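Before relying on records like the one below, remember that each one covers exactly one chain. Contacts with other chains, cofactors or solvent are not represented anywhere in the record.
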Amino acid sequence: MKNPANKYLFYDENENADDDIFWYGTQRDTLAGRHGGRTLQTAFPNGVQVTTILRYGNVLSYDGHVSLADNDMCHTLALNDPRFP
């Protein structure tokens, strides 16, 4: 693998996701964004739509370190595909 410190292995996925997996190739998957505004989260407490804008979520890289990333970074091929240089 090329550049394991800059390749994401696991994501902190948005808790409102409908498939329980995060795959960088699909835009319907969003990062949880618990730390700080690029990720939109929509919830329906008491039947009322509430949209929250958050920034960063946790990602685990192949080298074992955890860092913060934004949703756009999580959908970037260079940061996700182990075969990408």
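The longest strand covers residues 56-61.
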